[in-house]
Design a protein that fits this description.
By secondary structure, this protein is mainly beta. It has one domain. Helices cover 6% and strands 49% of the residues. Strand 1 and strand 2 form a beta hairpin. The two termini are 17 Å apart.
Length: 125
């Protein structure tokens, strides 16, 4: 295996320190439709989605994280069926998955959202 060791990366116009790329970039992310038959629109390092129940999803990584102390962020749009605001929760972080809930703000019930986004930052195993 070859190793490339450089301090900066450039495309000829912009230059960035490799430390930002290695330490600051999302190591996994997904944009998915969480209604009906759920489906990934686009992703990086995400192998699959599981629809566990209404508003309850598992996002599985292709390559696992070093430990479960990585940072995750979950966002979504309003509930499709009701148009009520939705809160998003990452309820469990495993080295190879994140459990995600989308919850109606007005009554606390789980609800599907057609736009769900999950981003994970941390060290891969």
């Amino acid at each position: 295996m070859s190793t490339l060791n450089v301090a900066n990366i450039t495309d000829g116009t912009d230059t960035v320190e490799t430390g930002y790329v290695v330490n600051g970039s999302a190591k996994a992310w997904v944009n998915f439709n969480g209604t009906g038959t759920i489906a990934i629109r686009d992703s990086l390092n995400v192998s699959s989605l599981t629809d566990n129940d209404v508003g309850y999803y598992t996002v599985s990584s292709t390559n696992s994280f070093n430990n479960s102390n990585y940072s995750t962020s979950v966002t979504s749009n309003r509930a499709v069926s009701t148009n009520f605001p939705v809160t998003q929760h990452a309820i469990e972080l495993g080295t190879g998955y994140v459990l995600v809930l989308t919850v109606r703000y007005d009554n606390g019930g789980f609800v599907d959202s057609n736009l769900v986004f999950v981003q994970n930052f941390g060290d891969l195993a």
